[in-house]
Amino acid sequence: MTDMADNTNTKLIAAAFEGQKKSYCPYSQFRVGAAVVSEDGKVFSGANVENASYGGAICAERTSLVKAVSEGCTNLSGLAVVSDLDEPITPCGICRQFLREFFAPRTPILLVSQSHHANANRRDTDYAGEVVIKTNIEELLPRSFGPEQLG
Ligand SMILES: [Zn+2]
């Protein structure tokens, strides 16, 4: 990975933790944050937004994507997802399909443990417990249906 990619990933993960602070989750208490970056470097963070009508809840991944797309950014080059868990969480099925619409098969998706944030002020040698899984939509949603099928 190049330094430029590292810097973008660091920025993206920080934005996902920033987004998480705005989580509206009075029912689950499960705070999720996400951030997407456009090819021209714009970052859009998001959080999960729940609703008293539970089915109306929107995940952090889709919040960040909708923010980007509604601002005219559909060329996206990365996503980071964070929660309060020590193990990284993965996008739900609906979010995977939503990501499929705008992400190339191998656009990087970073799934990040809470400890990454806890270690934000770490020394270079102090990465205890930190986990960042790098995946993509090809892995998360194999043999998927997408825009190409509709011509
Ligand atoms: Zn989801």
TrEMBL record:
An example Gene Ontology CC term for this record: cytosol
EC number: 3.5.4.5
One function term, GO molecular function aspect: zinc ion binding
Active site: E61 (proton donor)
EC class: hydrolase
Coiled-coil region(s): none
Substrates-to-products reaction catalysed: 2'-deoxycytidine + H2O + H(+) = 2'-deoxyuridine + NH4(+); cytidine + H2O + H(+) = uridine + NH4(+)
A Pfam cross-reference name: dCMP_cyt_deam_1
Binding sites annotated in the UniProt record for Zn(2+): C59, C92, C95
Alphabetized Gene3D superfamilies for the sequence: Cytidine Deaminase, domain 2 (3.40.140.10)
Domain CMP/dCMP-type deaminase, chain residue ranges per copy: 7-148
Cofactor: Zn(2+)
Binding residues for substrate: N48, V49, E50, N51, A52, S53, Y54
Purpose: This enzyme scavenges exogenous and endogenous cytidine and 2'-deoxycytidine for UMP synthesis.
Listed PANTHER family: CYTIDINE DEAMINASE
Record protein name field: Cytidine deaminase
Phylogenetic classification of the source organism: Eukaryota, Fungi, Dikarya, Basidiomycota, Wallemiomycotina
